[in-house]
Every structure is written in structure tokens, then in C-alpha cells.
Design a protein that fits this description.
Elements lengths: L13 E6 L2 E7 L3 H11 L3 E8 L3 E5 L9 E4 L4 E5 L3 E5 L4 E10 L5 H5 L4 E7 L2
Antiparallel strand pairs: 1-2, 1-9, 2-8, 3-4, 3-9, 4-7, 5-8, 6-7, 6-8
């Protein structure tokens, strides 16, 4: 019996990503790191300071470690990943490295502009 359709029954989980004055919605992955991040957000929004790195990503320390399930990944703009278990990386370009995927921004309109070229404060919260 073919069971390929059973995955579609689960509801996609969303989070809101606020970058400065701009708000985006992200679709979350289904893994232990996301479960731990969602648990953190259930206690209130999670805000981190993120800095530019290498001209294609923003990276910021989470302040705690989340479970990892790293795999070699080629990222693209809008991808949100966990790096070394304790840093969140948001991409506005592409990179290939070993990450744990957390989610993807749903609509990239003005994404690169919102991230800008310097440090940004980013707030993650449940819903979207």
C-alpha cells in the first residue's frame, strides 16, 4: 500500500521574523531543533543581534544550544539555519556548509533590503 500522502496531513508550522521595522513569515522545518526553538518562543519572542558575515548571511548567537541534525546543505536567500548548535543564520545569498535547517522565509520581497549591510536586531515569534 502506498503511504506517500500521509505526510501532507501535518499542518505547516509558521513563525514571524521581525527584522527592524519589517515583518516576514517563515515556514518551519520538522526537527528537534525547531521543536526546541518553538518551546523557547512559547515563553515569549526570542530577539537576537545579528551581524553580516561574508556578504551572503546574517549570523547571531542564540544564547543557548539547540539539538542539531546537521547535513551538507546548499542554502539560498530566505533560508534560516542553525550553525554549531547555538547560532542562527539567515541567508540573503547562497552558501554550502553543514547546517541544521530551521525554516524558510515565505515571501522574499524586500528581504535583502530589510537585512541591510550592518548589524540588525531580529525577533522570532510564533505564528505568522
Amino acid at each position: 500500500m502506498d503511504n506517500t500522502g500521509s505526510e501532507e496531513e501535518s499542518t505547516e508550522m509558521k513563525m514571524t521574523v521581525q527584522v527592524g521595522e519589517s515583518t516576514f513569515t517563515a515556514t518551519l522545518e520538522d526537527n528537534a531543533a525547531v521543536d526546541a526553538l518553538v518551546e523557547m518562543m512559547e515563553h515569549g519572542p526570542v530577539t537576537i543581534q545579528m551581524s553580516d558575515y561574508a556578504g551572503f548571511e546574517k549570523v547571531g548567537a542564540l544564547g543557548t544550544s539547540l539539538p542539531t541534525s546537521n547535513s551538507q546543505t546548499t542554502t539560498q536567500a530566505g533560508d534560516i539555519v542553525l550553525y554549531q548548535g547555538n547560532q542562527i543564520v539567515m541567508f540573503y545569498g547562497s552558501n554550502s556548509w553543514s547546517y541544521t535547517r530551521l525554516g524558510t522565509i515565505d515571501d522574499l520581497t524586500s528581504w535583502t533590503e530589510a537585512l541591510g549591510s550592518g548589524d540588525v536586531s531580529v525577533t522570532f515569534s510564533l505564528g505568522g
